[in-house]
Write a structure and sequence with these properties.
The protein is an alpha/beta fold and 436 residues long. The protein folds into three domains: 200 residues, NAD(P)-binding Rossmann-like Domain (Rossmann fold, 3-Layer(aba) Sandwich), CATH 3.40.50; 87 residues, NAD(P)-binding Rossmann-like Domain (Rossmann fold, 3-Layer(aba) Sandwich), CATH 3.40.50.720; 135 residues, NAD(P)-binding Rossmann-like Domain (Rossmann fold, 3-Layer(aba) Sandwich). The chain is built from 17 helices and 14 strands. The protein has a six-stranded parallel β-sheet with strand order 3-2-1-4-5-6, sandwiched between helices. A six-stranded parallel β-sheet has the order 11-10-9-12-13-14. It has a two-stranded parallel ribbon with strand order 7-8.
Length: 436
């Protein structure tokens, strides 16, 4: 089976590579000539564990190809996946210009029946806009060529994307024809051998499922952060509360961990977009507005705890920050809490040294020389008055506290992810703050 994947960002490259791993002949397309040149040279532009090995393997096997021109391969493919970006517009809605550009290029070049599948996260109603864009291009050509549009939202977790794609807990596909359904069933069949987890829906429902899923997860996070903040006021321990409510099978344990807020490319963007979609349809998503408000406030909680410890004055204080990416196993800093914390610290006159196992280069790209960059986690704390944990990378979870106590000038630790044992830190002479 031959497919094309337009867009070689996080979703597109993972999608194309995993299909190739299952024996599909895949051509990945991107208008960014430098990115395609890098991929052809074996240089992966994003960080995702295991992706570089799979890309190399399937390129060498002749199943994975890269080009800047969709027209050059469209005659040979049955399916074109659109996996381009949908960044938030100024009003919070999803910007569909790249999605519609793919649709227009598709309409300008198809010569036989081809299925156009939207893999990007797009608002409900996008498929109809895509269909009209293709039809307009066909009309301009004076052609009548059969095609279908489908929706196949991705549910990939950064840091575990390969596993998520190869062993999905569900594959959601919105279709409007039996022909499209059969093609998608055939394409995903190799991933379903241990059990059919495909969910076929109408197209609007498939588009809504992705937004609803991410918004529910974001809601659980903000709910627990709200509970954590209340626990501090009433003297309860949020970790005990979390275990208590997570034991209820109706609730479950996942995404009930309090911390310093969610970030990344999905939750913030998708919550905003769903709020905007509701607004455009005359409805107010009151719960999601609160989810967003709580999260924005939570991103600065480690800063507020540090500032309160020093009586509101942190000017001249040396602060070490562990973790820059919005979550472990990625270099993604989009909407990362670390950026908010750094901004607040610098505004108050603190001196900031940062370390992250992967995201140092991304941080340099974003904020340049505003902070000092350490080569490892221990050099980051040398001479520091305080240590802030913002991203819970595994290597940060069991540090040598005796060594840290000797390196630091101060003794304050603010744990933004609740990974440390309070009694252990107090034994080493630290003043310890956690969430909730």
């Amino acid at each position: 089976m031959n497919v094309a994947v337009v867009g070689t960002g996080y979703v597109g490259l993972v999608t194309g590579t995993c299909f190739a791993e299952m024996g599909v002949n895949v051509t990945c397309v991107d208008i960014d000539t430098s990115k395609i040149a890098r991929l052809k040279a074996g240089d992966i532009p994003i960080y995702e564990p295991g992706l570089d090995t799979l890309v190399k393997k399937n390129v060498e096997a002749g199943r994975l190809h890269f080009t800047t021109d969709l027209a050059s391969c469209i005659d040979s493919v049955e399916v074109v996946f659109s996996a381009v970006g949908t960044p938030p517009d100024e009003d919070g809605s999803a910007d569909l210009k790249y999605v519609l550009n793919v649709a227009r290029t598709f309409g300008q070049n198809i010569k036989k029946y081809t299925l156009l599948v939207t893999k990007s996260t797009v608002p409900v109603g996008t498929a109809e806009k895509v269909r009209r864009a293709v039809e307009d291009e066909l009309a301009a050509r004076g052609e009548k060529i059969d095609f279908d549009v489908a929706s196949n939202p991705e549910f990939l977790k950064e840091g575990a994307a390969i596993k998520d794609f190869m062993s999905p807990d569900r594959v959601v596909v919105g279709v409007a024809s039996e022909k499209a359904r059969k093609i998608m069933s055939r394409l995903y069949r190799p991933f379903m051998l241990s059990g059919d987890r495909m969910i076929f829906t109408d197209i609007p429902s498939a588009e809504m499922i992705k937004y609803a899923a991410n918004s529910m997860l974001a809601t659980r996070i903000s709910f627990m952060n709200d509970i954590a903040n209340l626990c501090e006021l009433v003297g309860a321990d949020v970790n005990m509360v979390r275990k208590g409510i997570g034991s209820d099978t109706r609730i479950g344990k996942k995404f009930l961990y309090p911390g310093c807020g969610y970030g990344g490319s999905c939750f913030p963007k998708d919550v905003k977009a769903l709020i905007k979609t509701a607004e455009q349809n005359g409805y107010d998503m009151r719960v999601l507005r609160a989810v967003e408000d709580v999260n924005e406030a939570q991103k600065s909680i480690v800063y507020r705890k540090l500032r309160n410890h020093f009586g509101g004055d942190i000017k001249g204080k040396k602060v070490a920050l562990w973790g820059l990416a919005f979550k472990p196993e990625t270099d993604d800093m989009r909407e990362a809490p670390s950026l908010v914390v750094i901004d607040r610290l610098l505004a108050d006159g603190a001196e900031v040294t940062v370390f992250d196992p992967i995201a140092i280069d991304e941080c340099r790209r974003r904020i340049g020389g505003k902070v000092a960059y350490a080569d490892d986690m221990y050099s980051a704390v040398e001479g520091a008055d305080a240590l802030l944990l913002v991203t819970e990378w595994k290597q940060f979870r069991s540090p040598d506290w005796s060594r840290i106590a000797a390196l630091m000038s101060g003794n304050v630790v603010v744990d933004g992810r609740n990974v440390y044992d309070e009694a252990e830190l107090r034994e080493h002479g630290f003043v310890y703050y956690k969430i909730g």
